[in-house]
Structures
1.
Amino acid sequence: MYLQRKIDKYLSDWSLKSTRKPLLLRGARQVGKSWAVRHLGEQFDHFLEINFEMMPQYKAVFQQDLDVKRIISHLAAISGIPIIPGKTLLFFDEIQECLEALMSLRFFKENMPDLHVVSAGSLLELALDELPTFGVGRIHSMFMYPMTFDEFLLANGHERLLNERNQASVDNPLPETIHNKLVELVRTYMIVGGMPEAVAAWVKNGDFLHCQEIQDDILQGYSDDFPKYRKKVDPELLRKTFLSVASQMTNKFMYSEVSGYKAEEVKKALDLLAKAGLIIPVTHTAANGLPLGSEADPKYRKMLLMDCGIFLRLLKMNIGNIQEITSHILNSSVANLVNKGPVAELMAGLEIQYNKEPNLRHEMYYWQRQAKNSLAEVDYIGIKDMKVLPIEVKANVSGSMASLWIFMREKGLDQAMRCSLENFGKFTYTDTKAEGVLRHVKICPLYAISMMLSI
C-alpha cells in the first residue's frame, strides 16, 4: 500500500517538463524517497532502479568513463530493461555509494536531456563535499522529509476530515466534534511521528509499541551510519550530540552540554547532522525586516529533531522510562499538552518547515531578546505577505504571551499567529504599553499549520 505524499505532485510535474534536469532527491534515511520514486515509475512504460548499496556490480559501468550513451547501453544490457527516452524512468538509489554515477548526472542533461533520470541517497552532502565539481545548473534538487500531519491523515483514511478542515477559517471555525477528532489525531501523530514505515504500521494495526520498535530500528540505522562520517567527525561525538539535541529540545543549544568535546567540535557535529537531515537548526534573527537571514546570529540556535516520534524514542535513550511523557501526550488537557513540554513546539516547527516548497532547503528562525534581565522569546519567525510574521506556540489566554507583545511593540507589527490546540479563531489585544495600539492575532490549530499562510 502506497502512502500518498505531498512530493508526488512535484515529482509528477518535474516528469512532464520539457526543460527538466536530472533530479537529485535529498533527505534523511527512511523518509520515503525510494518509495516515492517507485510510485512515480508507475507512470512510465519501463522503470529501472539501481541501488548502489545492494547492487555494487553496477559501479563498474561508471568507472570506465562518463559517456552516458555507453552507460545507458550497458545498464540496459545488464538489467534486461529497455532504457528509452520519454518511456523509461531511470532511478539511481543510494547514489552516494558511487561518486562516478553522481558525477554523471550533469552529462545526462547535456547529452540525453529527454531521458528521465532520478537519483536519491542519504549522506549525500558528504559525497558532494568529495566531488571536485558538481553539475551546477544542470541538476535539480528536491528535499524530502518525514510525513506531515496532513499526509498522516490521508494515510489513515481521513480525507473527508481533511477536506472539512480545509474549509475552516478564523471567521468560520470547525464544529466542536470535528475539532476534537483532529485534536485526538494530533495526539496520536505526536507519538507515531511521520516516518513512513511507522505510519504504515499504525495504519495496519494501530499498535504504538510496534511503531516504537520501528522507530528504534530507524535510530539504530542512523547510529550505524555515524562511522561513515569518521573522516570528518568522531562517531561517538555524533551520537552524544544527537542525544543532546533531544535533551535540549526547543531551548538554545548549549555546546557545553556535550561533555568531553570542545565547542568547535560540537558545532561541526551539528553541521553534519543538519546536512544529513537528522536535525533542523532554528537560528536567532533580529527580524527588523526582510530577508530574515540578513540579521541572523548563528551563535544563538535551537535544534529540532526531524520527527516527533523519533524524538520520543531518542529521549528514552536519555532518561529511560518515558511512560509519563507518553501518558501526558495522550491524556493531558489541551492547555497542558501545548504549554508543558517541548513536543507541541517541536511539531509546530516541523510542520512549518515540512509544508514549504520542496525545491529549496529552507532556513528557520526565531527571536530572542538579548537585553539583560529582560528575557523574551518568540518561538518562530516567518513571512506572510512580504512582512515579518511572529509565531507563538501557546495554549490560550493572551496574558501568557508577553514575549509576543514585546516583539510586536519593538518591531512595529500588528499581525501575529498563535499555534495551539484551540479551534480556528482570532482576537485583538490592546497594547496599553504602546498608547493602545491594537495587535491582531490569528489562531492556527496545530492540526492546520499547512493552512497558516492562507487563513
Note: The two ends are 33 Å apart (CA to CA).
2.
Amino acid sequence: MTTDRNKAAIIISKNLKRYRKSAGLTQIALGLKIGKNAEYISQIERRVALPSVEVLFTIAAVLNIKPYEFLREE
C-alpha cells in the first residue's frame, strides 16, 4: 500500500526531473543554484530523500515555476 508520504515522493520526483530537464539543467547545475550537491538532487529524483518545503520553494524559484507545480499529478 502506498502511503501519502510515498505518493508525494513519487509525484515530486517525477515533476522535479521533468521541470529540471525542461529548464535544460543537469543535477549538478541545479544543485549549485540551490546550494546543494548533485547527489541530493539525485536522491529526490530517485525518491530516496523528500525535500523540505523550503527546498521546494528554492528549487521552484530557480526553475521559474510555482511551488505547487511539484505536487500536480499528470
Note: The first helix runs from residue 4 to 22.
